[in-house]
Amino acid sequence: MRIISAPDYASMSRKAANLLSAQVILKPDCVLGLATGGTPVGVYKQLVNWYEKGDLDFSKVHTVNLDEYIGLPVTHPQSYRSFMNDNLFNHVNIPIENTNVPNGNAHNMDAECARYEKLIDSLGGVDMQLLGIGNTGHIGFNEPHDRFDTTTHVVTLSEVTIRANARFFDSEADVPRYAVTMGIQTIMKAQKIVLVANGENKADILEKALFGPINPQIPASILQLHRDVTVFADEAALKVIREKHPQAID
């Protein structure tokens, strides 16, 4: 695992985007696993900027997103399909049919979860997976649990996650209570993982996830077992790690 520091959010986003862009350049038909939420926005903005300059070509890339709310129309501005269209897909030359987000409105969610797993396998797996980390240590929507959930599945969102996501909705009551997410096993099968974190509110959980016991109560702690993880974080998010494990930061 490499932990790379950045002075601020913009620099962190640029460094993480550089790794994703290298993946696209080295393997034009790669499969990117993508994340939503506030933290990856800067990464996508940088990728769009480089595409507009002619530095990147997404025409052969396939993407698979981590998760989606259940019961939220795909046209809703806070659906993760809308998020990805608005922040990346509509601004680069990726064929829309090459982009994949779980269907949170499927009639049979068990069948949808199985379909999504088969889809990822049919693409040859994920070459590089982008992750954020939630305040509870969740990755995707894998919430704290008594076990590490394996493949794509339906989750009940924790109150902490609902409160954290309420800023994107008119009120907390509007936040969906359920989501479909790639499971821990699915995430861990990616060839490479890129984790981005910013802000002092992530400092404690980031240190626990990267240096504490591997425990399903902190789902991101499983990343300690992955063979190729790069963490990009700003100085605020690295505050606790810098105090306790300064030698671990590049």
Describe what you observe in this structure.
With 250 residues, the protein is an alpha/beta fold. It has a single domain, classed as Rossmann fold (3-Layer(aba) Sandwich), CATH 3.40.50.1360. 32% of the residues lie in helices and 17% in strands. It contains 8 helices and 10 strands. The strands form 2 sheets. A 7-stranded parallel beta sheet has the order 1-10-9-6-2-3-5, covered by helices on one side. A 3-stranded antiparallel beta sheet has the order 4-8-7, covered by helices on one side. Strand 9, helix 7 and strand 10 (229-234) form a beta-alpha-beta unit. Helix 1 (9-26) crosses helix 2. The relative contact order is 0.18.
Largest sheet: number of strands, sense, barrel closure? 7 strands, parallel
Strand order of the largest sheet: 1-10-9-6-2-3-5
CATH hierarchy: architecture: 3-Layer(aba) Sandwich
What fold name goes in the CATH topology slot? Rossmann fold
Runs in which pLDDT lies below 50 for 5 or more consecutive residues are none
Distance between the termini: 11 Å
So what's the overall shape?
globular
* Content of β-strand: 15-25%
> Helix share of residues?
25-40%
By DSSP (H or I, 4+ residues per run), the number of helices equals 8
CATH class: Alpha Beta
Order of helices and strands: EHEHEEHEHEEHEHEHEH
Indicate the radius of gyration in whole angstroms: 17 Å
Assign the structural class, choosing from mainly alpha, mainly beta, alpha/beta, alpha+beta, or little secondary structure.
Answer: alpha/beta
The count of strands amounts to 10
Number of domains: 1
Give the rounded overall mean pLDDT. 96
